[in-house]
């Protein structure tokens, strides 16, 4: 038995190998090969380390004595010139965190921030998922037009609604209350939530939903037993986005939150004194304010990546 290697016959005729000059690689392909090289990866690692330096500086400053912070930079805490990457434990102290935890304004603001962030995230996820399910899987008059209206709300800046909503909340008696801040964040988080989840739910096979309906599942049961479990990655991504937005917010908190019990971003701003003579308190407080959303992100990192990649490949 012989195997032909040079030509391929098609309907009795020989298909000659293509002739002509070899195709030149495109600029995109050359760039793709370049980005996969070791040198570029090393460059990206260096950029990442430089990007993390402010965080390392904030962490180091939060453990340093106020006198050391005022007299030298945070990098001086990393040992002698012989061992530049070894931390000099003699310059570090936990007194800053003791004073932070002993500051009632900061600790109370932490609980206020949680009281605002957690309900705002849960409401956006639940209401947004229900609305997204209706837009993706139910048929009702004007569905596409209503969805276009929701998409149009994505471009409305928060600053436009501050004064009208403040006047409305004042008439309702919820201005400068935690409830008012939660409602504001929920209202402005819903358009993005509906847009993100609707696109994800629309990719769920219709046959699966029809099979569940034939088995006697109602819309409510279908939503909780089928849609929500399948939409876990997208819901996790939305939860991280909403949590970070609300946790780090300062503008809405300055206007709508109670000035007597503000969230942590406002409380830290109120602690700023002339010439920054309480930098030890600010450094430790800022790091605590940063590390909590980081912990939330890393806890749901796998679901976040899955949610961002959902729908990219059919």
How is this structure best described in words?
This protein is mainly alpha-helical and 314 residues long. The protein folds into 2 domains: 33-93, no CATH class; 100-309, MetI-like (MetI-like fold), CATH 1.10.3720.10. It has 15 helices and 2 strands. A two-stranded antiparallel sheet has the order 1-2. Helix 5 packs antiparallel against helix 13. It starts with 7 loop residues before the first strand and ends in a 5-residue tail after the last helix.
Keywords:
314 residues, mainly alpha, MetI-like fold, 2 domains, two-stranded antiparallel ribbon, 15 helices, 2 strands, disordered N terminus
List the SSEs and their pairings:
Layout: E1 8-10, E2 13-15, H1 27-35, H2 38-62, H3 66-71, H4 95-101, H5 104-137, H6 143-152, H7 158-172, H8 178-201, H9 206-214, H10 219-230, H11 232-247, H12 251-256, H13 264-270, H14 279-299, H15 301-309
Helix pairs in contact: 2-14, 4-14, 5-8, 5-11, 5-13, 6-8, 8-11, 11-14, 11-15
Q: Calculate Rg over CA atoms.
A: 28 Å
Strand order of the largest sheet: 1-2
Overall average pLDDT? 79
Q: Describe the sheet with the most strands.
A: 2 strands, antiparallel
Stated plainly, the CATH topology of the largest domain is called MetI-like fold
Q: In the residues, how many domains can be counted?
A: 2
Number of strand elements: 2
Strand content: under 5%
Q: How many H/I helical runs? A: 15
Provide the CATH architecture of the largest domain. Answer: Orthogonal Bundle
Q: Per the principal axes of the C-alpha atoms, what is the gross shape? A: globular
Secondary-structure element pattern, one letter each: EEHHHHHHHHHHHHHHH
Which class do the helix and strand fractions yield? mainly alpha
CATH class category of the largest domain: Mainly Alpha
Query: Which range best describes the helical content: under 10%, 10-25%, 25-40%, 40-55%, 55-70% or over 70%?
Result: 55-70%
As residue ranges, the low-confidence spans are 1-17
Instruction: Give the N-terminus to C-terminus distance in angstroms.
Output: 42 Å
What's the CATH H-level homologous superfamily of the largest domain? Answer: MetI-like
């Amino acid at each position: 038995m012989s195997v032909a290697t040079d030509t391929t016959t098609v309907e009795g005729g020989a298909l000659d190998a293509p002739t002509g000059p070899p195709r030149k690689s495109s600029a995109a392909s050359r760039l793709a090969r370049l980005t996969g090289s070791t040198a570029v990866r090393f460059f990206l690692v260096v950029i990442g380390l430089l990007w993390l330096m402010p965080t390392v500086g904030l962490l180091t400053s939060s453990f340093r004595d106020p006198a050391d912070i005022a007299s030298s930079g945070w990098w001086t805490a990393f040992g002698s010139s012989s061992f530049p990457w070894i931390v000099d434990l003699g310059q570090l102290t936990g007194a800053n965190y003791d004073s932070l935890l002993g500051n009632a304004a900061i600790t109370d603001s932490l609980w206020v921030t949680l009281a605002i962030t957690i309900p705002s995230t849960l409401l956006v996820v639940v209401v947004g998922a229900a609305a997204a399910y209706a837009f993706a899987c139910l048929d009702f008059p004007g569905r596409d037009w209503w969805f276009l209206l929701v998409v149009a709300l994505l471009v409305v800046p928060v600053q436009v609604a501050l004064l009208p909503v403040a006047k409305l909340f004042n008439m309702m008696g919820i201005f400068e209350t935690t409830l008012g801040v939660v409602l504001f964040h929920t209202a402005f988080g819903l358009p993005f939530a509906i847009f993100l989840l609707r696109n994800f739910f629309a990719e769920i096979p219709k046959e699966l939903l029809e099979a569940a309906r034939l088995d006697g599942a109602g819309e409510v049961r279908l939503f909780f037993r089928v849609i929500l479990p399948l939409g876990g990655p997208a819901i996790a991504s939305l939860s991280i986005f909403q949590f970070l937005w609300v946790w780090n917010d300062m503008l809405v908190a300055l206007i709508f939150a109670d000035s007597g019990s503000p969230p942590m971003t406002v409380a830290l701003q109120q602690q700023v004194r002339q010439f920054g003579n309480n930098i030890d308190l600010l450094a430790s407080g800022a790091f605590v304010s940063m590390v909590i959303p980081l912990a939330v992100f890393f806890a749901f990192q796998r679901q976040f990546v899955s949610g961002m990649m959902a729908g990219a490949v059919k």
